[in-house]
Design brief:
Structural class: alpha/beta
Strand content: 15-25%
Number of domains: 2
GO cellular component, one term: mitochondrion
Pfam family, one: Rhodanese
CATH topology of the largest domain: Oxidized Rhodanese, domain 1
GO molecular function, one term: protein phosphatase inhibitor activity
CATH superfamily of the largest domain: Rhodanese-like domain
Order of helices and strands: EHEHEEEEEEEHEHEHEEHEEHEHHH
Protein name: Serine/threonine/tyrosine interacting like 1
InterPro entries: Dual-sp_phosphatase_cat-dom, Prot-tyrosine_phosphatase-like, Rhodanese-like_dom, Rhodanese-like_dom_sf, STY_interacting-like, TYR_PHOSPHATASE_DUAL_dom
Largest sheet: 5 strands, parallel
Radius of gyration: 22 Å
Amino acid sequence: MADLVLCEPTELYNILNQVTKLSRLTEPNYLCLLDVRSKQEYDESHVITARRVKKKADEYLIPESVDLECVKYCVVYDNNSSCLDLIRDDSDNSGSENGTGKSLIVGAAIECGKALAHLTRHPVQILRGGYESFSAKYHFFRTQKIIWMPQELDEFQPYPVEIVPGSIDCGKFTRTPSDKIPGDMHIKSIVNIIKNSGFSFVGDADKLLHIQIEDSPEAFIFPFLRHLCHFIDVHLELGNVILVFSTLGISRSCGVILAYLMHQNEQTLKKSWEHVKKCKNNVCPNRALVAQLSQWGDDCSRRLHHRY
């Protein structure tokens, strides 16, 4: 029997935006997102790709097409569950569902999750704060769409993942970016790590840093790392959300973010890597870049030692 764990809104957001060549939402055994709210609430709006779970008597009816044993992520949400305990509301029995004085259960997601736990190999995740919290932060992932065709999932354009929520995002290059993603994610500053990208930036030039680095084992990014970290520091102090991007968003951009986490948090490459990997499962800096990051970590350690 699998455990129940809480899933932060940012974690679900990042799960929804993982990619290989296409969005991972195209994989049938990647994510099972279940909505246990009422039909009216679900029809008004729900999280993209979520399926409504019906309840008959005291049993939750999982969609027949879902094989929970094979699913990597099973996430369940209700309106606003914020813990893993079932809470019975005995304050007003007259308002109970059947008028018999039976107490109401607050936390349908937890109740459903416990019913599903014996069907899964991985922990069932309960969305902290439920739909209310997630939709308030990621309103652009609300939908009324119930059925997703395979072609629609193939064409789904993921957003950048959040490495540091509300501060640092990581994504891949788009030649003609619309205002939608920067606006939705409140992105104010951009770090571009592509050589001759043709990226056009509309806005204050001081909020764009373009370091032209080729995606090759010969690329040398080490001399730019201090400048990159300084740029990120300055714009975070200004309260700006920063997007770091490269061609695929898996090597150079991740390398810059790893360097910044080592610099800012005074931590090892291994620990920084573990954090980025949790947010973005296809992080893959090339070997030369990893060697330079290791050297950067040594430099960060020396600077820290001299400080004290």
